[in-house]
Write a structure and sequence with these properties.
6-stranded parallel beta sheet; about 270 residues; Rossmann fold; 8 helices; 2 domains; single chain; alpha/beta; 6-stranded mixed beta sheet; globular; 12 strands
Length: about 270
C-alpha cells in the first residue's frame, strides 16, 4: 500500500498506543490486512504516549471525528480502562482493555482480546489447552486476559506466578469465583512439569536480556510461549530452543488477534 496515496480528507484513522512504541509491528500487519480486505480510506499509525499523558490523549481521541479505534499496548492496558466510557463484560472482569473504538457520539468502548487471541493462536498450531497443565507468569492486562481465557477453556491446572504475590492471589481469587471447577493456584519462578509455560510479562522486551522464569524443570515437550513481540525470539524463547523445547512467539499471538481487532475497531456503533 502506498500510504501517502490514501491520506486525504476522507481518511479514517486507527492507531496503536503504547510506551515505548518504536518496536510495534501491529501497524504493518493491520495496514496489510486493510489493503487485502480493500477497506477504503483507512490507515493505522503509532502513537507514543506516556502514562502521564494517557488520560489527556484518550480524552482527545473522543474529539477526533475521523478517529475510529486503537490498539492499546504496554503499559496502558489496565489504566486505559479508567478513561473510556464503556467496556465489555470480559474487559471489566479482567481489569483492562487492549482495543477501543469510537462511536458517532464520541464515546469510547473497550474490549480485551489478548486472551482470545492467544488461545486462538495455539489452536491454529493444533495445540489444545483443555485439560492441560498451564504455567503463567504475569498478571497484568495481557496475563489476566490469558488466565481468564485458559480458565474458560477448562485447563486441567493453571499455575500463576507474579513477583508481587498479592497480585497473583487477587487474580486467582477472581478466577476461582468465576470458574470454581478449575484447579488454579499460585506458583513460583521455577515451574516444574507443565504442558504449556507462558511469559505474559514485559521481561525480555527490546534490549532486556532477562529471563522471566526458569525452564530447568519443565517437561521435555513443554510448549514455551512469550507474548513479547519485539524481539520475535526473546531470551526466554532462545533458551527454550537451546533445550530442544517447542516455542510459541508473541508475533503468532498478534497475528491471531489482527482480524479480531480490525473487526472490533471498524464495527460501526451508533
Amino acid at each position: 500500500m502506498n500510504e501517502l496515496s490514501i491520506v486525504s480528507g476522507k481518511l479514517q484513522l486507527l492507531s496503536i498506543i503504547g510506551d515505548p512504541i518504536a518496536q510495534v509491528s501491529a501497524p504493518l500487519m493491520i495496514n496489510a490486512a486493510i489493503l487485502e480486505k480493500q477497506i477504503p480510506d483507512t490507515l493505522m499509525v503509532p502513537l507514543h504516549i506516556s502514562s502521564v499523558g494517557l488520560q489527556t490523549a484518550v480524552n482527545g481521541l473522543k474529539c477526533i471525528q475521523n478517529f475510529r479505534g486503537a490498539i492499546i499496548t504496554m503499559p496502558h492496558k489496565q489504566h486505559a480502562l479508567s478513561f473510556i466510557d464503556s467496556a465489555s463484560e470480559s474487559a471489566m472482569a479482567i481489569g483492562g482493555c487492549n482495543v477501543i473504538r469510537r462511536n458517532a457520539q464520541g464515546q469510547l468502548h473497550g474490549d480485551m482480546l489478548d486472551g482470545e487471541g492467544f488461545v486462538s493462536s495455539l489452536l491454529k498450531r493444533g495445540i489444545d489447552v483443555t485439560g492441560k497443565r498451564v504455567y503463567l507468569a504475569g498478571t497484568g492486562g495481557a496475563g489476566s486476559a490469558i488466565a481468564y481465557a485458559m480458565a474458560a477453556k477448562q485447563v486441567g491446572e493453571l499455575i500463576i506466578y507474579n513477583r508481587t504475590p498479592d497480585k497473583s492471589a487477587n487474580l486467582i481469587s477472581k478466577l476461582l469465583y468465576r470458574y470454581p471447577g478449575v484447579n488454579i493456584y499460585s506458583g513460583s519462578s521455577d515451574p516444574e512439569q507443565v504442558d504449556i509455560a507462558i511469559n505474559a510479562t514485559s521481561v525480555g522486551m527490546g534490549e532486556n536480556k532477562k529471563i522471566p522464569f526458569s525452564i530447568e524443570k519443565l517437561g521435555s515437550k513443554t510448549v514455551v510461549c512469550d507474548i513479547v513481540i519485539f524481539p520475535d525470539k526473546t531470551p526466554l524463547l532462545c533458551l527454550a530452543e537451546q533445550h530442544g523445547l517447542p516455542i510459541h512467539t508473541g508475533r503468532a499471538m498478534l497475528a491471531a488477534q489482527i482480524e479480531l481487532m480490525l473487526d472490533f475497531m471498524l464495527h460501526q456503533v451508533d
